[in-house]
Design goal:
Shape: globular
Distance between the termini: 31 Å
Number of strands: 11
Helix content: 10-25%
Order of helices and strands: EHEHEEEHEHEEEHEE
Radius of gyration: 15 Å
Strand content: 25-35%
Number of helices: 5
Length: 166
């Protein structure tokens, strides 16, 4: 169900509201979240029937004391050293999950790079540019949004860099 530039929809998440406000074309995919699944991202890819290299997870890291968002394919892992470099820092570690939730306004497994409570510096893995569209969390478990990587990068002011590894 493609959507284009509607005002706030009832039941929308801050991510879908941000997309609509920006006039971005996107598609929402919902599925029944299984709390026992070992990986939120892999569960999303499986449930939507989308290759895991097109489904991206949103991770929050601490780069030299500043929270930074990393968006990488669910099929791989975040390279913390590459993230630090891309963000102009020296050292990156994963952020405390409770701090990530408080800062973004989302729960773990549902953190979206869009519509965060506090806009954080964002780095999008360069592999996203190989796809016409990618999927990222729409702001809650069981809800993904599909959009062009260029639109995601523009809306989040993301830097594109090779921060994922297989």
């Amino acid at each position: 169900m493609a959507k284009k530039a509607k005002k706030q929809q009832s039941g929308g998440t801050p991510a879908t509201v941000a997309l609509a406000a920006a006039g971005i074309t996107y598609t929402v995919h919902s599925y029944d979240h299984d709390p026992s699944h070992p990986s939120y991202g892999e569960e999303a890819a499986e449930a939507m029937g989308v290759p895991p290299d097109r489904v991206f997870k949103t991770l929050v890291a601490d780069v030299d004391g500043a929270l930074t968002v990393a968006v990488v394919p669910v099929a791989g892992q975040l390279d913390l050293k590459a993230l630090a470099s891309a963000a102009g820092g020296k050292r990156a570690t994963m952020a405390d999950p409770a701090l990530a939730e408080r800062t973004t306004g989302y729960v773990r497994g549902g953190i979206s790079p869009l519509g965060q409570r506090k806009k954080l510096p964002t780095v999008l893995d360069a592999s996203a540019a190989r796809h016409d569209t990618i999927c990222v969390s729409a702001g809650r478990r069981g809800l993904e949004v599909e959009l062009s990587p260029g639109d995601l990068a523009r809306l989040t002011d993301a830097v594109l860099a090779p921060i994922g590894r297989a």
